[in-house]
Specification:
Helix content is 34%, strand content 38%. With 110 residues, the chain is an alpha+beta fold. A hairpin with a 5-residue loop joins strand 3 and strand 4 (93-105).
Length: 110
């Protein structure tokens, strides 16, 4: 399945718009990762643990988006937007959401 942030797919004709699809992933941040991230923030550098968790969450959200699109009969999703939020009492939860439009593109005849 083609998943793209653009509103069209070059060289492909959209023949049917099937609706908005979304996928979300919510992950709790581990207290030990939080402590190491705080130390990393003080001394500078990147927090590899958070980057890995956000990467996992993004993959989950996009997988859910694709599954929903397939259920609608789509073979592509256009206009995908990925958002990141932290929430909870101490911002200890992370949410990644992906939203796009499920479409049916014309099958290429090669």
């Amino acid at each position: 399945m083609i998943i793209t942030t653009t509103n069209n797919i070059e060289g492909q004709k959209i023949v049917n718009y099937l609706g908005v699809v979304t996928g979300e992933a919510i992950l709790g941040a581990n207290i030990f990762r939080d402590m190491f991230a705080a130390v990393r923030d003080i001394v500078g550098g990147r927090s590899a643990a958070y980057e890995r968790e956000l990467g996992k969450a993004r993959e989950i959200a996009l997988d859910e988006l694709e599954e929903w699109a397939e259920e609608l009969g789509a073979n592509a999703v256009v206009g995908v937007d990925i958002d990141y939020e932290s929430f909870g009492q101490t911002n200890g939860m992370m949410m990644v959401s992906a939203t796009g439009t499920a479409v049916r593109i014309e099958e290429s005849r090669s």
